[in-house]
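User: hey, got a sec? need Ribosome-recycling factor folded
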Amino acid sequence: MSDDLDIDLDAIQRRMDGAMTALKQEFASLRTGRASAALVEPIHVDAYGQMTPINQLGTVNVPEPRMVVINVWDKAMIGKVEKAIRESGIGINPVTDGPLIRLPIPELNEQRRKELTKVAAQYAESAKVAIRNVRRDGMDQIKKAKTAGMSEDDQKMWSDEVQEMTDKHVAAVDKALEAKQAEIMQI
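Assistant: Yep! Here you go:
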């Protein structure tokens, strides 16, 4: 078999792992009633002419279980950071105290918890779609290799490998979703 007939399973694996990593980052940004620095990671501020993540404008700390504190380095940015937090939709009202912006994390009510589990399910579905897209790309590589002279036995073997990878990653997404939903619903 020549090198142009080889299927790059490592690249397929890397891309599927990337979808899992993205899912974990999205899950980390979901509020569970406990303070986490990951809560403000997706928020970007219009600073110095470009959109900048909050963690590049100040220090983000979690001094207690229900409080996130952002120590903004440039005093001119405090108002912009506060505005970005208010408009981000995370449902937290920032309190400014000099260069510090405090984010008190309120208790989640039952309705909000159910909404967050639905959001988590949407994130999981997006990850599954990304994994299936990688699978489709892998299967397309296999089809091209078949037209270039790959045997049907090799085609079947590669297809089974790609499908097995896909099944493992989809199962991992389901497991991560189940864990995150249980964490959200925990009081």
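Quick note: The mean pLDDT is 87. Let me know if you need anything else on Ribosome-recycling factor.
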